[in-house]
Design a protein that fits this description.
This protein has 266 residues and is an alpha/beta fold. It has a single domain, classed as Rossmann fold (3-Layer(aba) Sandwich). It contains 8 helices and 7 strands. It has a 7-stranded parallel beta sheet, with helices on both faces. Helix 1 (13-24) links the parallel strand 1 (4-7) and strand 2. The longest helix has 29 residues, at 94-122. This is SDR family NAD(P)-dependent oxidoreductase. Keywords: Oxidoreductase.
Amino acid sequence: MTKTIFITGTSAGIGKATAKLFAAKGWKVIATMRRPENDTELARLNNVTVLPLDVTDLDQIKDATQKALSLGNIDVVFNNAGYALLGPLEATTDEQIVKQMETNFLGTVRVVQAFIPNFKAKKSGLFINMTSSAGIMAFPFSSMYDASKWALEGWSESLSFELEQFNIGIKNIEPGLVATDMSERTILPSHTDYDDLLAKFLAIVNNPQSISTPEQIAEIVYEAATDGKDILRYVCGEDAKAMYAQRLEVGDEAFRKGLKQLIFGE
């Protein structure tokens, strides 16, 4: 029987690559994005349906969920929509803070909540969430982005216990740096008191030792969707795996001090 995946944030990057991969693997794909009128590729694929969805719009979440379920059975929901709010907290507006959490965290929460009754009724289903290595390790000048991803991590782990009795799974994808258009969608408020330190941090980020492609991360999403394993976290990307292994080896405080020394020379 052909399986179906519902994906948020498919206009570009990991979401788009994942939609194309699952379609190539024979899955039916419901690809959602804020502006489907701008799509020039996914809608042309035979087994892909494109729907409008802004995950900060609760009514649109409910509408997209109902439309998706009316098209047939949904097996996997991949919550991918998100963006990065970076820079010093002091320079960040309240509106920017709220929007970051509304999109990255509450958007995922509300999409999952909308699909739970259907998954519970059929006693099967899998939620896959795009978190980040920034959800298991905190980095400078990304306090609100990290907060949104750490929130997803704790929420997912807690939720996994209550969903298991209904045979509903939940998994997190935690990549490091990925070559996507995320930089174009990054909000970067500035403050002169932090410019020098921010420049040092961005210099390291912009010259990574390793970086993943969206297609490589899409492969991990496919693995999570099909491996049948009871695993919550999928750390992926050579940079993320190496850094996380180091954190586990030396401990949280030693890792934090090492990161300070690397970036700030302290």
